[in-house]
Amino acid sequence: MTAPVPTPADSPTVGAAGPVADNSALRADIRRLGDLLGETLVRQEGPQLLGLVEQVRLLSRTDGEATAELLSDIDLDTAAKLVRAFSTYFHLANVTEQVHRGREFATRRAREGSLLAQTADQL
Question: What CA–CA distance (Å, rounded) separates 74 from 53?
Fold first, then answer.
């Protein structure tokens, strides 16, 4: 899980509210957590599971049939561990994004004031 799947967060974009901030800190945190998850998988389950995770991740990008064939040959116990590894990664990525959004909101609120204060200023 050392290299996350690229997402729209991989580059600055324009959202409904205007330009979105640089997401390099978010990507770095997600990458760091992915690395830690990979180390944990190796410690708890062995390097074979991490190898399988990486193989599925890379194959799923390029060859859906080969991915399906690989997954069809996996025993139930290994499949459960694989699903747990991917779901843990995505959970960590989602929580990290929430933390970053919270920090951005707090920074904006400190800079611009609360919505209530902004509304009162306009009156």
Answer: 12
